[in-house]
Design a protein that fits this description.
- The structure is a single chain.
- The chain is built from 9 helices and 6 strands.
- It folds into 3 domains: 1-38; 42-106 and 152-189, Up-down Bundle (ADP Ribosyl Cyclase, Chain A, domain 1), CATH 1.20.82.10; 109-140 and 193-280, Rossmann fold (3-Layer(aba) Sandwich), CATH 3.40.50.720.
- 31% of the residues are buried.
- The termini are far apart.
- The protein has helices spanning 2-37, 51-66, 75-84, 100-105, 122-131, 142-147, 177-192, 214-222, 250-261; strands at residues 44-45, 116-119, 165-166, 195-202, 228-237, 265-272.
- It is elongated and about 100 Å long.
- Helix 2 (51-66) runs antiparallel to helix 3 (75-84) and helix 7 (177-192) runs parallel beside helix 8.
- The strands form 2 sheets. A 4-stranded parallel sheet has the order 2-4-5-6, with helices on both faces. A two-stranded antiparallel ribbon has the order 1-3.
- 43% of the residues lie in helices and 12% in strands.
- The chain has 280 residues and is α/β, with parallel strands linked by helices.
- The structure holds ligand NGD.
- Ligand NGD binds at residues 117-120, 122, 137-139, 148, 169, 178-179, 182, 186, 189, 213-215, 219.
- Ligand NGD is lined by residues 117-120, 122, 137-139, 148, 169, 178-179, 182, 186, 189, 213-215, 219.
Length: 280
């Protein structure tokens, strides 16, 4: 009799344990599926928080304070055009045409002899143009100023920006909003340059000129020989000196041969830290 009761109790315990286990497995499976469904779609950072607000604020600062000659541009329209370039669009299938309305609203002429390109030397180039307000990198133009350092993308079937993730240019797809933007802006910036054009390169790395960079693959090929008098390269290296003249390395020789093929005169100088003037 006591044995029978004991057996019934242990059976009940077994059933309870089995049910408990089943419930636990089901809960874990549901949590797993939910997590999988909510995983970021892309490998890159999502749209910068408050993207539209930042674009509007940058536009106001640039047009009211930095370049008052542009005070009549409509920053509200610029903000709308920037958002519309990617809203409701497949972020792997963006084209330069998507930016045409934005480009039209941000037209700006850079005087001849004032264009500064850079490659692997962003901080150095900006340090220079902060000191000489007459010289312009792409990021010192309205279009570049609006976008520098920001990430943005949308998606088909939604009128929202994707704040969780955006396509990574290497891991996902090349025709994403940010890459297409910089390629388009860099191409136009170089195409519009005239007089002497300057480029600031990084002499502290083994290949200051990289043919795969935006400078090496887009900008150099879009300088127009008929209006670009020469390309002057400044190779900036760390204070403390470099063992040999960076202007004589194979990397810079490659740049020299590209400019020669394109019938653009070329000069190169190197310096430990920024020179007082880019004039060579
Ligand atoms: O396809 C890309 C891409 N290519 C480079 N970079 C890219 N980012 C993408 N999302 N998609 C990034 O641009 C890279 O990681 C660096 O953070 C930055 C510049 O690359 P770097 O140092 O190799 O220099 P690049 O030669 O490629 O371009 C500099 C020239 C300069 O004269 C600017 O007028 O091209 C213009 N730029 C290009 C790309 C990005 C500026 C920027 C920018 N301000 O972010």
């Amino acid at each position: 009799m006591a044995d029978e009761r004991c057996c019934r109790i242990s059976k009940k315990v077994q059933i309870c344990l089995a049910v408990g286990l089943l419930v636990a497995v089901a809960v874990l499976a549901v949590v797993g599926v939910l997590k999988w469904l909510q995983r970021p779609k892309w490998n890159g950072r999502g749209t910068t928080d408050n993207f539209a607000g930042m674009v509007l604020e940058r536009c106001n600062v640039y047009t009211q304070m930095l370049q008052p000659a542009l005070r009549n541009v409509d920053c509200q329209k610029i903000q709308e055009a920037f958002k519309s370039s990617s809203i409701s669009k497949n972020p792997c299938n963006i084209t330069e045409e998507d930016y045409q309305p934005l480009v039209k609203l941000t037209t700006q002429t850079i005087p001849c002899g004032k264009t500064v390109l850079w490659s692997k030397a962003k901080e150095t180039a900006h340090e220079y143009t902060r000191g000489d307000r007459e010289m312009f990198t792409l990021e010192d133009t309205l279009l570049g100023y609006l976008a520098d350092g920001l990430t943005w993308c949308g998606d088909t079937g939604t009128s929202e920006m994707n704040y969780r993730s955006c396509p990574h240019w290497k891991k996902d797809c090349p025709n994403n909003p940010v890459s297409v933007f910089w390629k388009m802006a860099s191409r136009r910036f170089a195409d519009a340059a005239c007089g002497v054009v300057y480029v600031i390169l990084n002499g502290s790395i083994s290949n200051p000129f990289d043919e795969n960079s935006t400078f090496g693959s887009v900008e150099i090929n879009n300088l127009r020989p008929e209006k670009v008098q020469a390309l002057h390269a400044w190779v900036i290296h760390d204070v403390g000196g470099v063992p040999s003249d960076p202007c004589m390395t194979s990397s810079i020789n490659k740049l020299k041969s590209i400019t020669s093929q394109r019938k653009i005169a070329f000069r190169c100088r190197h310096n430990a830290g920024l020179p007082h003037s880019l004039r060579i």
